[in-house]
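Protocol step 4 of 6: structure prediction from sequence.
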Amino acid sequence: MKFAATILSLALAASSSSAEDVINLNRPDAEGWIKLFNDNDLTGWNGDPKIWRVKDGYISGEIDKLVGGNSFLIFKKPFSNYILELEVLLVGRKGNSGIQYRSKHSERGANKWVVKGYQADFANGCWGKLYEEGGRGALVWKYQDSAPEIKPNDGWNSYRITANGSKLKQELNGTVTIEFDDKDPTKAAKEGVIALQYHSPGGFEVRFRNIQIKLLGSESLK
């Protein structure tokens, strides 16, 4: 996929004005997609370096033992309305992971890499379901139509997440797994960060690649 060479610098909505608070995003391609992972390093992301690394064009999360609870690789810019696409893989179908969206950074003691919010879940028995990390727990645990087919033999699985206004939709390998209209006046999230989960107690590897976003409505880059 080709992207325009022009780079647009966008400041984070944060109190600090340090260089780390500026995220350089490519302008959208002809179809409106922006890459969030450059295939080479973790530019734009923040997480525990003991867990996260880049290998052969994908992000790998792996540690023998994780203490202090779940840890997350956090993209350092919040978004509101968008379609997010990426591919995920649990090596050997072991472990537990997920994709956080419209989430809030929330440190927990010595653990600097904690978020709360919507999670597109994936683990045995949880693929494609909607969970709220650090909040209401399981939001949608019944599939919209049928269970998604998960690729065998460590194949890559395609996730597509749409967050538009109060409506959330998750698709996995082409199957719509959940649709949810979150109209809770106090708990529904309208914007937040995207993050990748590594679940305690560790001892497994999760991989992510081809991470791209298409902004919707007034948030779209012109």
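Step 5 (inspection) to follow. The chain has no helices and 17 strands.
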